[in-house]
Amino acid sequence: MFWRTLTLGALLGQYASAQNMLRFGCSQLTIERADPLVSPGQNPAPHTHQIIGGNSFNLTMEPVQYDPPTLSTCTTCTYSEDFSNYWTASLYFRDPDNGTFQRVPQFANFGIQQDGGMTVYYMPYSAKNGKMTAFKPGFRMIAGDPTNKQSQYKPSICHRCLGNGEGFAPCDAKDTAELPTKYCPGGIRATVIFPSCWDGKNLDSPDHKSHVAYSNGGGLGSPNCPATHPVAVPQVMYEIMWDTGRYKNTAWYGNGKQPFVYSFGDGLGYGQHGDYLFGWQGDALQKAMDALPTGRCANANCGVLKIQSAADAMKCKKSQQVVEDVGKAGEWLTQLPGGVTVNY
C-alpha cells in the first residue's frame, strides 16, 4: 500500500535498481506559526507549520552562527545525531456545513513508530560512483512555492490518495499536484522532493532555492548535475501522512471539490512546500552517505550512525514560541490561524 523501502531498497519506476538510502521517522516537535527561513524573527509568521527535528528550533536561526547540534538537547528523529529541522505547512479540514476548521493529524508511515511528524529520506540518486557531498553547517533550502496556483511542481511536490488508486514511486502518474478530489480511506500522503545538486559555494540564497538545482528539472534525481550546480548532494524527501480518512462523507468530494486546505489558505494544494535546515552533528551525515554503497547503512538501520528508540524520539518536544491555539489537539477553530483567507 505504501512506498515500501525497507531492507530491499527502492524500486522507483524507471530507476529499476535497488539502492540503499536513509529512510527514518521523526516525530512532532511543535506546531506553530514560526518560520526561521522565510520569516526570520517574525512572531508570528504568516501561517502554521508542523516542525520536526532538533529542539533548538527557533524563530531566528542565522546560518553558521546558529548551530543546531550544539544548541539542541534532543531530537525527534530516529538518528540521534540528526538535529536538523524539517517543516511543512499544516493541513486543515474545513467543514463544508459551517466553515469551521480542524487540524488534520499525521500518522506514522509504513514500518515506522512515531508521534505525528514525517518520514525523512536522504537518497543517492545524483551520486557518481557512489559519491556525494554532505551538506555543510548553515545549509538550508526550500522546495515548492506557497504562491503556486498550477501544476508547476508536480514531479517534486505531490499528493497520493491512499486506498483509492495509489501508485508506487513518489510523484508518479497516479499522484496529483493538487489535493485529491476523491475520498481517500487510507489518508493522503504528501510528498516533497528537494533538489539534489548544489553550486558548491553558497549555504543559502535570497530565495532559498537558487543555490541548489534538480538534476533533471524536478523529481527524483539522476547522476547528471548541471554545470551551474555540479556538486551532488543527498536528495532529501519528506512524506507526510495526513489522516484524512476520518472525514468520510461522499457529499464533500468529487466534481472538483474536496474539504481540505493548507494553513496558508491553499484550498487546491499546488502551493505545498517544505523547508530544510541542516543540523547533523559533525561528519555523521557524510559517514552515512559514504556507507550507503557498502550496505552498512540503509533506511533506519545505519551501522555508522547512533540510533535512539522511538520512545526517546517521541519524548523530545518544544513548547510553542508563538503561543496561540492552532488546533494542535483537534480543537475546532472559527478561522485558520492568523485569519488566513482560503483561496481556490
Describe the protein.
The chain is mainly beta. 5% of the residues lie in helices and 22% in strands. The longest helix is centred in the last third of the chain and has 8 residues, at 284-291.
Assign a percent range to the helix content.
under 10%
For the secondary structure, the number of strands is 19
Q: Please give the largest β-sheet.
A: 5 strands, antiparallel
Question: Structural class given helices, strands, pairing?
Answer: mainly beta
Please outline the helices and strands.
Elements: E1 22-26, E2 28-32, E3 49-53, H1 68-71, E4 85-89, E5 91-94, E6 101-103, E7 118-123, E8 140-144, E9 157-161, E10 188-193, E11 197-198, E12 212-213, E13 231-232, E14 235-242, E15 260-262, E16 273-277, H2 284-291, E17 297-298, E18 301-302, H3 310-315, E19 332-333
Antiparallel strand pairs: 1-7, 2-3, 3-4, 4-16, 5-6, 5-15, 6-19, 7-14, 8-16, 9-10, 10-14, 11-12, 11-13, 17-18
Outline:
With 344 residues, the chain is mainly β. The protein has helices at residues 68-71, 284-291, 310-315, and strands spanning 22-26, 28-32, 49-53, 85-89, 91-94, 101-103, 118-123, 140-144, 157-161, 188-193, 197-198, 212-213, 231-232, 235-242, 260-262, 273-277, 297-298, 301-302, 332-333. It contains three helices and 19 strands.
Offer a few descriptive terms:
five-stranded antiparallel beta sheet; single chain; disordered N terminus; 344 residues; 19 strands; mainly beta
